[in-house]
Amino acid sequence: MDTELKEWQECVDVLSLVRLSNDSDSWFWNVENQAGFSVSSVKKERINDRGNSGLPNFEWCKWIPIKCNIMAWRANLDRLATKVNLKRRNVDIPSVMCPFYDEYEESVDHLFTACSLASRVWTAVSAWCNIPPIFAFAFKDLLDIHNSGLLGKKAKKIMLGLVISTVWCIWKARNDLVFNQIRRSPQEIVSEVKSRVMLGLKIGLLVNISIGRSGVNIRCICCNLVALCPFGSRVLCLLAFCPFASEVCF
């Protein structure tokens, strides 16, 4: 009875704030101090709410396929269908161990950072790009590598796309093993990363890349000089495309 009286009093309090008039009903946009609605105000409101959502930030990369971005975004939220996450959702699976080496439980952080196969892939990708070895303790650390102060604006975009493309290829290799019983070596995964990155640079960032007899010719988008990068060694240098490694080229 006390609960019903409390609810009744709350209802009366709410209705007491209502002021009736003979004017026609109308809608008001209460985000801004004006009656008019604008799309820009909605955008501002969503941007302001994003900082208070409690969700981890994710920077989208425009020069790689959207499916790669979505997959990395889900991984950053720990929403990928890894075995640990499936078990957490009461999905009946025979084992939660990592399918690559069956040593540890398959979580997002383990699959992309701690797994022996992933570590070998990141080491090979780092050597290919002529950058210090990529090492991370958690998945979110991978998505923050491109924010290094040593990289220029263009190089940061390339680095972010490289990381997300590598993550996609590792996840694809994992699915091939789980669902198709196809085991891919780290070398095969790295080869796919190279193909995706080179194609993405040519189409997404309009980098002038051509295949010559001696290797890959990358024309600097700024100084128009050509850097020759032979296959099998350091094909792509993220710090600069031109031979002088000048920051102005970014």
From TrEMBL:
MF (Gene Ontology): RNA-directed DNA polymerase activity
Keyword Nucleotidyltransferase: yes
Pfam families given in the database record: zf-RVT
Species of origin: Helianthus annuus
Key words, A-Z: Nucleotidyltransferase, RNA-directed DNA polymerase, Transferase
Official protein name in the record: Reverse transcriptase zinc-binding domain-containing protein
Residue ranges of every copy of the Reverse transcriptase zinc-binding domain listed in the record: 47-122
Domain of life: Eukaryota
